[in-house]
Amino acid sequence: MSNDLTLKGRVAVTGVGETTYYKRSQSPDAEFKLVLKAILAACADAGISPREIDGFCSYSNDRNTPARLANALGLDELRYSNMQWGGGGGGAAGAVQNAAGAICAGSAKMIVAYRGLAQGQFGRFGQGGRRKSITGEFAYTVPYGVMSPAQIYAMRTTRLMHEHNIDRSTMRAVALACYHHAQNNPRAVMHGRPLDEETYDSSRWITEPFRLYDCCLENDGAAAMLVTSADRARDANDHPVMVLAAQQSGGHRSGSWVHNPTDYATSSFKPAAKYLYEQAGVTPEDVNVAQSYENFTGAVVMSLIEHGLCTYENANEVLTFDNLRADGGKLPLNTSGGNLAECYMHGLGLQIEAVRQVRGDSTNQVANVDVSLANAGPMVEIASTAIYGSEAALG
Amino acid sequence: MSDTNNFCLPEGLTQPAPMPDGLDAAYWEGTLAHELKVQRCGSCDTHQWGPEWMCHNCQALDPEWIAVEPHGVVYSWQRVHHPVHPALTDHGPYIVVLVELPHADNLRMVGNLVGDPMQDVVIGSSVEAVFEDHPSGEPPYTLVQWRTT
């Protein structure tokens, strides 16, 4: 593969920014103002003027449009705007991919990938719709009481557990690791709210096989990442982080209606993984730390397997709390607390944590991180995943 | 099942309606007549679900509609405990099954499992369709539920 056709060595994240993360509907700020604050925070982190921004990428039908953002920021030029289709957080790494591709193409020079959410102001993701009638895809599921994300994705996890003998304790280990890491992260909504095995085991069912702690939070806040050329990032500050590869991912009929993807018990990452590592020039064994999007814990198990970080056969042995913790684990996972315990910013927080791990300023820092992986939106029709790296990772 | 007191889920949920562009009219008309209709390509005989204007196997346009035997096997399932719609608030748990139709290229359908909501559900067990009529719908509609055989 020609290096001319990959991101590696050409694109970097120069700054990251987040607002305070709030419990659902607790934000004192309007959603759009949250996004502006996150962008300003990313600019301050990068040491650039907001006026340098000339492009915007987002996902999940974000309500905060590039035109309004450019207008609010007083930008002289808007050269690039882009959205990955699909709900949920499937596009968190995809927004970075789209920004990175545009940087490589010279379409813009400083692109912000962003996501803002104030569910109290616009309605919750975890609640069903209130319409009298519905047509199309959801006409085949909603009348049967399948309407929330947990209800839409539970049966994939049931099938995973059935086909591959994945234990409940493996899913529990994911939740325990997330909550463990949140206790060191003052940004985390669940900071100061530790989780133990007994609390997990006795928590109520949302829908079998998901208990309460298998499910992500619902939060208000905003997050932003500034994507630019590797050279501009090196000039801007002392903490450039390379985008080694980023990839959107859907498999055969992954968008088919009524739960008919050919491969059902999948996180949708099988197509991406084979390109991701080749483009990044690394292998799964090189990954020092992973952020794996937890809409639900079962999806994390699928994702780690499909990224080659463990196998169907050894998942129950590898994915233990001791192995997943940043302080001494073999496969440190979701070191900010992730969507379960830091904040559900539709996964952009996980991308930012992956960047932090390369910079060396995570609140649960893993030693000597050169290769840092973050995926997004497992099980949705189009997921996405990215690998970030240090200068050393460029080889 | 025509006894309106015997719906799997309470009334008041969002009801289904055919798509305005006509893509799935044959399915909903079929259920009213207690027939389970899916697409089958007239060129390559591939069964297809959900509906689309093209056969995903051979790209022939306008797949035909055929009635299939209304039985299958449980491919996956969930027991929903946490309600997310007002109509379900005091209803209690209910079972959703994903049913595979081996005689129709293993296509899958979503429905509720009739009977005790706390019953054991076994992947691979045989089920048959139960047509649940909602004549007071606007427009009237019929849901396809499943019963263990």
What does this structure look like?
The complex is a heterodimer of chains A (395) and B (149). Chain A contains 14 helices and 13 strands. Chain A has 395 residues and is an alpha+beta fold. Chain A has a single domain (3-123, 215-394), classed as Thiolase/Chalcone synthase (Peroxisomal Thiolase, Chain A, domain 1), CATH 3.40.47.10. In chain A, 61% of the residues are buried. In chain A, helix 6 (168-182) crosses helix 10. In chain A, a hairpin with a 6-residue loop joins strand 12 (371-376) and strand 13. Chain B has 149 residues and is mainly beta. Chain B has one domain. In chain B, 5% of the residues lie in helices and 38% in strands. In chain B, the strands form two sheets. Chain B has a five-stranded antiparallel sheet, with helices on one face. Chain B has a three-stranded antiparallel sheet with strand order 3-2-4, covered by helices on one side. Chain B is globular and about 50 Å long. The model of chain B has no long low-confidence stretch (mean pLDDT 95). Classes of the chains: A alpha+beta (395), B mainly beta (149). Chain A binds chain B through residues 126-137, 139-148, 150-151, 154-156, 158-159, 162, 204-209, 253, 256-260, 264, and chain B through 8-9, 13-20, 24, 49-51, 56, 75-82, 84-86, 88, 94, 96, 98, 107-112, 123, 138, 143. Strand 7 of chain A pairs antiparallel with strand 5 of chain B, so a sheet runs across the interface.
